[in-house]
Amino acid sequence: MKNLVVLISGRGSNLKAIINAIESRKINAKISLVLSNKKEAKGLEIAKNHGIKTKFIDPSFFSSREGYDIYIAELIKKEKPDLIVLAGYMRILSDEFIDAFEGKIVNIHPSLIPAFQGKNAQKQALEFGSLITGCSVHFVTKDLDSGPVIIQAAVPVLPEDTEETLSERILSYEHRIYPQAIKWILEGRVKVEGRKVIVKDAKYGTIPVN
Ligand code: GAR
Protein backbone atom coordinates (compact mmCIF):
# COMPACT_ATOMS: atom_id res chain seq x y z
CA MET A 1 0.00 0.00 0.00
CA LYS A 2 1.23 3.52 -0.78
CA ASN A 3 2.49 5.53 2.13
CA LEU A 4 2.22 9.22 2.97
CA VAL A 5 4.07 11.43 5.40
CA VAL A 6 2.21 14.66 6.17
CA LEU A 7 3.90 17.82 7.47
CA ILE A 8 1.78 20.35 9.34
CA SER A 9 2.11 23.47 11.46
CA GLY A 10 -1.43 24.14 12.63
CA ARG A 11 -5.13 23.41 12.43
CA GLY A 12 -4.85 20.36 10.19
CA SER A 13 -8.11 20.67 8.25
CA ASN A 14 -6.41 19.56 5.02
CA LEU A 15 -4.87 16.65 6.91
CA LYS A 16 -8.38 15.76 8.08
CA ALA A 17 -9.71 15.89 4.51
CA ILE A 18 -6.94 13.50 3.42
CA ILE A 19 -7.64 11.16 6.36
CA ASN A 20 -11.35 11.19 5.41
CA ALA A 21 -10.49 10.31 1.80
CA ILE A 22 -8.33 7.41 3.01
CA GLU A 23 -10.92 6.14 5.49
CA SER A 24 -13.68 6.30 2.89
CA ARG A 25 -11.37 4.44 0.47
CA LYS A 26 -11.20 7.19 -2.12
CA ILE A 27 -7.42 7.10 -1.66
CA ASN A 28 -5.72 3.72 -1.34
CA ALA A 29 -2.92 4.64 1.06
CA LYS A 30 -1.94 5.04 4.66
CA ILE A 31 -0.34 7.91 6.55
CA SER A 32 2.58 6.51 8.51
CA LEU A 33 3.65 9.77 10.14
CA VAL A 34 2.34 13.29 10.77
CA LEU A 35 5.19 15.61 11.65
CA SER A 36 4.80 19.13 13.04
CA ASN A 37 7.19 21.98 13.76
CA LYS A 38 4.64 23.40 16.25
CA LYS A 39 3.85 21.66 19.51
CA GLU A 40 0.36 23.16 19.74
CA ALA A 41 -0.67 22.18 16.19
CA LYS A 42 -4.28 20.97 16.37
CA GLY A 43 -3.58 18.59 13.51
CA LEU A 44 -1.45 16.45 15.84
CA GLU A 45 -4.59 15.67 17.87
CA ILE A 46 -6.54 14.88 14.72
CA ALA A 47 -3.83 12.41 13.67
CA LYS A 48 -3.68 10.77 17.11
CA ASN A 49 -7.47 10.40 17.16
CA HIS A 50 -7.17 8.43 13.93
CA GLY A 51 -4.39 6.19 15.23
CA ILE A 52 -1.66 7.86 13.18
CA LYS A 53 1.89 8.22 14.56
CA THR A 54 2.84 11.84 15.26
CA LYS A 55 6.08 13.67 15.96
CA PHE A 56 6.70 17.23 17.06
CA ILE A 57 10.25 18.26 16.26
CA ASP A 58 11.20 21.53 17.92
CA PRO A 59 13.06 23.89 15.56
CA SER A 60 14.55 25.80 18.52
CA PHE A 61 16.86 22.82 19.20
CA PHE A 62 18.59 23.41 15.87
CA SER A 63 20.97 26.21 15.03
CA SER A 64 19.99 26.36 11.35
CA ARG A 65 17.09 25.65 9.03
CA GLU A 66 19.31 23.23 7.11
CA GLY A 67 20.15 21.33 10.31
CA TYR A 68 16.48 20.97 11.15
CA ASP A 69 15.60 19.86 7.66
CA ILE A 70 18.42 17.29 7.50
CA TYR A 71 17.19 15.85 10.81
CA ILE A 72 13.55 15.59 9.74
CA ALA A 73 14.58 14.25 6.32
CA GLU A 74 16.28 11.31 8.09
CA LEU A 75 13.13 10.65 10.14
CA ILE A 76 10.99 10.81 7.04
CA LYS A 77 13.27 8.50 5.01
CA LYS A 78 12.71 5.77 7.61
CA GLU A 79 9.01 5.83 6.69
CA LYS A 80 9.84 5.17 3.01
CA PRO A 81 7.08 7.54 1.85
CA ASP A 82 5.72 7.50 -1.68
CA LEU A 83 4.73 11.12 -1.20
CA ILE A 84 5.41 13.90 1.29
CA VAL A 85 2.36 16.09 1.74
CA LEU A 86 2.72 19.64 3.06
CA ALA A 87 -0.62 20.51 4.63
CA GLY A 88 -0.34 23.98 6.11
CA TYR A 89 3.37 23.47 6.82
CA MET A 90 4.53 27.03 7.34
CA ARG A 91 8.30 26.62 7.13
CA ILE A 92 10.23 27.17 3.96
CA LEU A 93 12.05 23.96 3.11
CA SER A 94 15.79 24.11 2.55
CA ASP A 95 17.36 23.00 -0.72
CA GLU A 96 18.85 20.00 1.14
CA PHE A 97 15.37 18.72 2.02
CA ILE A 98 14.00 19.26 -1.47
CA ASP A 99 17.02 17.50 -3.03
CA ALA A 100 16.46 14.51 -0.74
CA PHE A 101 12.90 14.00 -2.00
CA GLU A 102 12.95 15.50 -5.50
CA GLY A 103 9.59 15.17 -7.24
CA LYS A 104 7.97 13.57 -4.20
CA ILE A 105 6.78 16.62 -2.27
CA VAL A 106 3.44 18.34 -2.80
CA ASN A 107 2.00 21.50 -1.28
CA ILE A 108 -1.33 23.27 -1.17
CA HIS A 109 -1.44 27.04 -1.43
CA PRO A 110 -4.54 29.24 -1.00
CA SER A 111 -4.27 31.15 -4.28
CA LEU A 112 -4.19 30.50 -8.00
CA ILE A 113 -0.43 30.40 -8.26
CA PRO A 114 1.60 32.22 -9.58
CA ALA A 115 -0.64 34.89 -8.01
CA PHE A 116 -0.21 35.71 -4.32
CA GLN A 117 2.69 33.51 -3.36
CA GLY A 118 4.05 33.46 0.19
CA LYS A 119 2.18 34.33 3.36
CA ASN A 120 -1.42 35.58 3.74
CA ALA A 121 -2.44 34.76 0.19
CA GLN A 122 -6.12 35.40 0.92
CA LYS A 123 -5.35 38.87 2.37
CA GLN A 124 -3.17 39.61 -0.65
CA ALA A 125 -6.09 38.73 -2.97
CA LEU A 126 -8.46 41.02 -1.07
CA GLU A 127 -5.99 43.90 -0.99
CA PHE A 128 -5.29 43.53 -4.69
CA GLY A 129 -9.02 43.65 -5.44
CA SER A 130 -9.13 40.30 -7.25
CA LEU A 131 -12.60 39.08 -8.15
CA ILE A 132 -11.42 35.50 -8.48
CA THR A 133 -8.84 33.67 -6.44
CA GLY A 134 -8.60 30.02 -5.44
CA CYS A 135 -6.25 27.28 -4.39
CA SER A 136 -3.52 25.22 -6.03
CA VAL A 137 -1.80 21.90 -5.39
CA HIS A 138 1.70 21.85 -6.83
CA PHE A 139 4.95 19.93 -6.73
CA VAL A 140 7.48 21.55 -4.45
CA THR A 141 10.61 22.91 -6.08
CA LYS A 142 13.28 25.25 -4.78
CA ASP A 143 11.22 28.29 -5.85
CA LEU A 144 8.62 29.13 -3.20
CA ASP A 145 5.00 28.33 -4.14
CA SER A 146 5.96 27.96 -7.80
CA GLY A 147 6.40 24.29 -8.70
CA PRO A 148 4.40 22.56 -11.47
CA VAL A 149 0.65 22.85 -10.80
CA ILE A 150 -1.30 19.58 -10.47
CA ILE A 151 -4.78 20.96 -9.80
CA GLN A 152 -6.42 24.31 -9.14
CA ALA A 153 -9.90 25.46 -8.16
CA ALA A 154 -11.16 28.99 -8.84
CA VAL A 155 -13.09 30.65 -6.02
CA PRO A 156 -15.01 33.96 -6.28
CA VAL A 157 -14.18 36.91 -4.06
CA LEU A 158 -17.39 38.57 -2.86
CA PRO A 159 -17.68 42.32 -2.18
CA GLU A 160 -18.45 41.75 1.50
CA ASP A 161 -15.62 39.26 2.04
CA THR A 162 -13.26 39.52 4.97
CA GLU A 163 -10.03 37.58 5.20
CA GLU A 164 -11.92 35.02 7.32
CA THR A 165 -14.89 34.50 5.00
CA LEU A 166 -12.68 34.29 1.93
CA SER A 167 -10.25 31.89 3.63
CA GLU A 168 -13.14 29.67 4.67
CA ARG A 169 -14.58 29.58 1.13
CA ILE A 170 -11.17 28.74 -0.35
CA LEU A 171 -10.59 26.11 2.33
CA SER A 172 -13.72 24.18 1.36
CA TYR A 173 -12.19 23.84 -2.15
CA GLU A 174 -8.78 22.94 -0.75
CA HIS A 175 -10.44 19.99 0.97
CA ARG A 176 -11.69 18.78 -2.40
CA ILE A 177 -8.63 19.30 -4.57
CA TYR A 178 -5.91 18.03 -2.21
CA PRO A 179 -7.26 14.48 -1.85
CA GLN A 180 -7.93 14.44 -5.61
CA ALA A 181 -4.32 15.38 -6.46
CA ILE A 182 -2.91 12.83 -4.00
CA LYS A 183 -5.14 10.10 -5.44
CA TRP A 184 -3.94 10.90 -8.98
CA ILE A 185 -0.27 10.81 -7.97
CA LEU A 186 -0.55 7.57 -5.99
CA GLU A 187 -2.40 5.94 -8.89
CA GLY A 188 0.61 6.75 -11.08
CA ARG A 189 -1.42 8.95 -13.42
CA VAL A 190 0.63 12.14 -13.08
CA LYS A 191 3.44 12.97 -15.47
CA VAL A 192 5.52 16.13 -15.29
CA GLU A 193 6.95 17.57 -18.50
CA GLY A 194 8.85 20.73 -17.69
CA ARG A 195 6.32 23.00 -16.00
CA LYS A 196 3.37 21.08 -17.37
CA VAL A 197 1.59 18.36 -15.41
CA ILE A 198 -0.38 15.82 -17.39
CA VAL A 199 -2.94 13.68 -15.59
CA LYS A 200 -4.12 10.57 -17.38
CA ASP A 201 -7.92 10.42 -17.83
CA ALA A 202 -8.68 13.47 -15.68
CA LYS A 203 -11.92 15.30 -16.41
CA TYR A 204 -11.23 19.01 -16.57
CA GLY A 205 -13.98 21.40 -15.52
CA THR A 206 -14.43 23.99 -12.81
CA ILE A 207 -12.81 21.51 -10.47
CA PRO A 208 -10.95 18.72 -12.24
CA VAL A 209 -12.06 15.27 -11.07
CA ASN A 210 -11.86 11.56 -11.71
C1 GAR B 1 -4.46 26.29 4.25
O1 GAR B 1 -5.30 27.32 3.83
C2 GAR B 1 -3.28 26.14 3.30
O2 GAR B 1 -3.62 26.38 1.96
C3 GAR B 1 -2.35 27.20 3.81
O3 GAR B 1 -2.45 27.09 5.22
C4 GAR B 1 -3.74 26.63 5.56
C5 GAR B 1 -3.60 25.42 6.45
O4 GAR B 1 -4.84 25.01 6.96
N1 GAR B 1 -1.02 27.02 3.36
C6 GAR B 1 -0.21 28.01 2.97
O5 GAR B 1 -0.54 29.17 3.02
C7 GAR B 1 1.15 27.56 2.45
N2 GAR B 1 1.83 28.63 1.84
P1 GAR B 1 -5.02 23.59 7.64
O6 GAR B 1 -3.93 23.48 8.72
O7 GAR B 1 -6.38 23.67 8.26
O8 GAR B 1 -4.90 22.55 6.59
UniProtKB/TrEMBL annotation:
<dbReference type="InterPro" id="IPR036477">
    <property type="entry name" value="Formyl_transf_N_sf"/>
</dbReference>
<dbReference type="GO" id="GO:0005737">
    <property type="term" value="C:cytoplasm"/>
</dbReference>
<feature type="binding site">
    <location>
        <position position="107"/>
    </location>
    <ligand>
        <name>(6R)-10-formyltetrahydrofolate</name>
    </ligand>
</feature>
<dbReference type="InterPro" id="IPR001555">
    <property type="entry name" value="GART_AS"/>
</dbReference>
<dbReference type="GO" id="GO:0006189">
    <property type="term" value="P:'de novo' IMP biosynthetic process"/>
</dbReference>
<comment type="similarity">
    <text>Belongs to the GART family.</text>
</comment>
<dbReference type="InterPro" id="IPR002376">
    <property type="entry name" value="Formyl_transf_N"/>
</dbReference>
<dbReference type="GO" id="GO:0004644">
    <property type="term" value="F:phosphoribosylglycinamide formyltransferase activity"/>
</dbReference>
<feature type="binding site">
    <location>
        <position position="65"/>
    </location>
    <ligand>
        <name>(6R)-10-formyltetrahydrofolate</name>
    </ligand>
</feature>
<dbReference type="Pfam" id="PF00551">
    <property type="entry name" value="Formyl_trans_N"/>
</dbReference>
<protein>
    <recommendedName>
        <fullName>Phosphoribosylglycinamide formyltransferase</fullName>
        <ecNumber>2.1.2.2</ecNumber>
    </recommendedName>
</protein>
<dbReference type="InterPro" id="IPR004607">
    <property type="entry name" value="GART"/>
</dbReference>
<keyword id="KW-0658">Purine biosynthesis</keyword>
<comment type="pathway">
    <text>Purine metabolism; IMP biosynthesis via de novo pathway; N(2)-formyl-N(1)-(5-phospho-D-ribosyl)glycinamide from N(1)-(5-phospho-D-ribosyl)glycinamide (10-formyl THF route): step 1/1.</text>
</comment>
<feature type="domain" description="Formyl transferase N-terminal">
    <location>
        <begin position="2"/>
        <end position="182"/>
    </location>
</feature>
<feature type="binding site">
    <location>
        <begin position="12"/>
        <end position="14"/>
    </location>
    <ligand>
        <name>N(1)-(5-phospho-beta-D-ribosyl)glycinamide</name>
    </ligand>
</feature>
<feature type="binding site">
    <location>
        <begin position="90"/>
        <end position="93"/>
    </location>
    <ligand>
        <name>(6R)-10-formyltetrahydrofolate</name>
    </ligand>
</feature>
<feature type="site" description="Raises pKa of active site His">
    <location>
        <position position="145"/>
    </location>
</feature>
<comment type="function">
    <text>Catalyzes the transfer of a formyl group from 10-formyltetrahydrofolate to 5-phospho-ribosyl-glycinamide (GAR), producing 5-phospho-ribosyl-N-formylglycinamide (FGAR) and tetrahydrofolate.</text>
</comment>
<keyword id="KW-0808">Transferase</keyword>
<feature type="active site" description="Proton donor">
    <location>
        <position position="109"/>
    </location>
</feature>
